[in-house]
Amino acid sequence: MKVLKDILYKASLEAVKGSTDITVNKVEFDSRQIGKGDVFVAINGTVSNGHDYIDKAISLGAKAIVCEEFPDVLSENVTYVLVKNSHKALAFMAANYYGNPSNNLKLVGITGTNGKTTIATLLYQLFKKAGYKVGLLSTVKILVGDEEYKATHTTPDSLTINRYLSEMQQEGVEYCFMEVSSHGIHQKRTEGLYFAGGIFTNLSHDHLDYHKSFSEYRDVKKSFFDKLPKSAFALTNIDDKNGLVMLQNTVAKKLTYALKTYADYRAQILESQFSGLLLKINDQEVWVKLIGAFNAYNLLAIYAAAINLGLEDMEVLRLMSELESVSGRFQFIVSGPSQITAIVDYAHTPDALDNVLKTIEDIRTRNEQLITIVGCGGDRDRTKRPVMAHIASSKSDVAIFTSDNPRSEDPVDIIEDMEKGVEPQNYKKTLSVVERKQAIKIACQLAKPNDIILIAGKGHETYQEIKGVRHDFDDMQIVKEILKELNK
Fold it and tell me: Within the chain, what is the greatest distance between any pair of CA atoms?
């Protein structure tokens, strides 16, 4: 049991009806989870408005309601707390309820369009190899030490975040690395958390279905750095034109990294192969098992963050050389008899797809075909569809457009949107195959010895979402099976 007034600390109250000097059981924002003696926080969400469920929450036993407007009729023996922003109030309440666990470990947030999962996961790997107890909050999974939980959002809701951070604290975790999405920042899920550092990767075309404009998307990302404490570091990629924007108003220690311009942390790519990269980082050479210029940026961010969290530079380089690539991020296999290289990558934005294709271009001999399979998600930003098709068709020998996660949309309509981006001279290089497995099969049939197949968009995902139903679907498993069946 907790005292309501203690849970409400820093929640910016506008008005109160009833007493806050009462004990409550737990905090919930889903009325279906309410039990006797709980606090219900009415959230105005993207799908439903929690204010419509206040009466239901009270009928289930809620003894306190936190809301942005008081109901017309107030129930007796229920405390009503008026706040300006329920999302923000919930974040502070969650932190207070769980004893502000982020204050008791070093929490680092990674934000940007691409690279968040890779940086967070590899920092987790690196610090674990260095002998520390580590936590991870990522798109792919949540790790509390060695205990793994399934992730459902890039940035979970604030109650979930604080619950996992509390568990980490109890398990003796010293460092936690967390993906911070623009949705999470905008919906105040990271308010009330104490960050030891923030990392900005890059900014490109994504989530404009949610943010409406690129400048709004950028400013939401920037607000994360604006709120970092003075004790934290703010590390930004200044090769990205928005990199310095992130640092404009932060009071945190400002740090930069780059491959192309002068920065606090700088790297050069000395060699690039399918087996890895030879990098020169701040005058020290290191061989890493990851591939491509985009991973050189990720590794440079990891190097800088690890040093600013207290590790020695030579130890960081040694540990970096042992890191393995992240699931669904430029994962590749080479088939048996035909030596066909099949690459699976999560690239689901124009910038990410362009980066992967550039990486392949830098490594390939051009004596082989590059066959790219790509789709676009349904119920998401439609404007990137023709852009991604343009990139795939102009930078591949063959581009096959197919389904990604069509969700509630007709996949044929999505592919038609994509086809509008193909220039006339590239049209003869394209195929449209609605069923994803069939698209992969056709690519494998077209592939000759030593050819390269890129399957983009889903990466680590092991499902396909069609009309609200998730079906088992693993790109890597399917391409392996088909190449084997074709004896390639």
Answer: 79
